């Protein structure tokens, strides 16, 4: 894919000249005639920003500071007709990659662009290429992920369903020294206990009815690499004991076998459940939690990072068009605004699902806001998964009894049929404060 460069200058003729020159050199070019317009274009995947320094309204340095705050990995080259050594020094000290003066020397411009793009490639590498984000929160999370990728510590990824936990786990694997070995994922809540144990640790021939052959488990298959245990909070308690033993001893014992097998596997786990609450409920072992949760990375829900919605939507349109409807070329700005204002309880997975449907059904090359409105209206009728529905019911119920009792926890607990301690735990789980419901009188 061609590197994508955004050019910003209020001189339309210079903008056109630079655009033609760089397009001829093999780059994908977008143009903006003001810093304000540039910030809108930056919701797309841009690899380099080249901006004029002196412009009406927001100038080049003010634009750079906004970019540094919103997209800290994006390199910036500043050009100006009023170049001076102090300005150049100040700009480079603050993190501007290059500083050029007009008239622009073609060779110098190309050298700056090539060096800036090379620096981005070195700093980001390929490990995070599948994660599309412009969010500062996500950028900080990815920086943490890269820092811990080089070690072998266990990582627990938390976040709502559909927020991209497996994608992050895979990125950590790619950034680690284990990247050339297997990355294997399994959903711990999708299989019954006996089958899950066999899948993880393997089984010997005749270990149980139907075990007609010896089976190598996923720990062996992932040897030297990474094993991703998704929805670890749904793992049956007896299996939690066996997993803890494997993590401590670095050996597995296949079902029905007396021999142990050494394994070298990094474990990354994930859950959308509140494991601290699960520990209090005795449904999740405390010792296993601390073994898995050496480092915790929390993925924010999509509604908390709306700036990621436009680039994600564009990417999903591009992918869906390739698979289902090649005549679809893009999505309208009005449609992107509708998407950015939606609540997305299903997170990135729900966004991808919506985009795939509207792309497959589109009769026009550009997806309209009307199509998005219609798809979102239909999506609201889809039933939520059990865990999300239960959590939503619990919170609404607690709010109701607190309203009835005007924040009196003793009375509220009595109505709910719970003791005060349990009731306080429920309030903490849902981040509710009884004092917020007390009468002002």
TrEMBL record:
Residues 131-360 form the Sigma-54 factor interaction domain. Gene3D superfamilies: 1.10.8.60, 3.40.50.2300, Homeodomain-like (1.10.10.60), P-loop containing nucleotide triphosphate hydrolases (3.40.50.300). The keyword Transcription applies. The modification 4-aspartylphosphate is found at residue 52. Pfam families: AAA_lid_14, HTH_8, Response_reg, Sigma54_activat. Signal peptide: none annotated. Keywords: ATP-binding, DNA-binding, Nucleotide-binding, Phosphoprotein, Transcription, Transcription regulation. It comes from the Bacteria. Residues 4-117 form the Response regulatory domain. This is Sigma 54-interacting transcriptional regulator. The lineage of its organism: Bacteria, Pseudomonadati, Pseudomonadota, Gammaproteobacteria, Oceanospirillales.
